[in-house]
């Protein structure tokens, strides 16, 4: 049985290492659907009932926590990232370029 798009997105999100972030666009590009970053966002929103999908590690193309309003509580996404040692300032990942990860398998 072929995997759904959402399942493929979730599998890639699971590969993002602790203390690193990736983007909706990088995941879409890896799946051969470079213009589908918004669909990746929908898949991340649908992953909140899956405890093993680190949706908090997926941010927009400049490191903004654009999906934060989909997490329970007002700052849960930021808190999860900060717990991994990632600094956030004004809803954006500090040193985004150094923390960006896209080495998907």
Helix and strand content put the structural class at mainly alpha
- The succession of helices and strands, N to C, reads HEHHEHEEH
Strand content: 5-15%
Going by CATH, the homologous superfamily would be Winged helix-like DNA-binding domain superfamily/Winged helix DNA-binding domain
Features:
two-stranded parallel sheet; mainly alpha; 35% helix; 5 helices; 105 residues; 8% strand; globular
Describe the protein in words.
This protein is mostly helical. It has one domain (5-99): Winged helix-like DNA-binding domain superfamily/Winged helix DNA-binding domain (Arc Repressor Mutant, subunit A). It has helices at residues 5-13, 24-30, 37-45, 76-83, 96-99, and strands spanning 22-23, 58-59, 88-89, 92-93. A two-stranded parallel sheet has the order 1-2. A two-stranded antiparallel sheet has the order 3-4. Strand 3 (88-89) and strand 4 (92-93) form a beta hairpin. The two termini are 20 Å apart.
């Amino acid at each position: 049985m072929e995997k759904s798009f959402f399942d493929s997105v979730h599998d890639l999100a699971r590969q993002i290492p602790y203390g690193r972030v990736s983007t909706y666009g990088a995941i879409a590009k890896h799946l051969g659907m470079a213009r589908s970053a918004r669909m990746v966002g929908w898949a991340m929103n649908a992953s909140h009932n899956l405890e093993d999908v680190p949706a908090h590690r997926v941010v927009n193309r400049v490191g903004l926590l654009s999906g934060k309003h989909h997490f329970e509580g007002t700052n849960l996404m930021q808190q999860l990232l900060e717990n991994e040692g990632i600094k956030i300032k004004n809803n954006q990942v500090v040193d985004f370029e150094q923390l960006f990860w896209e080495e998907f398998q």
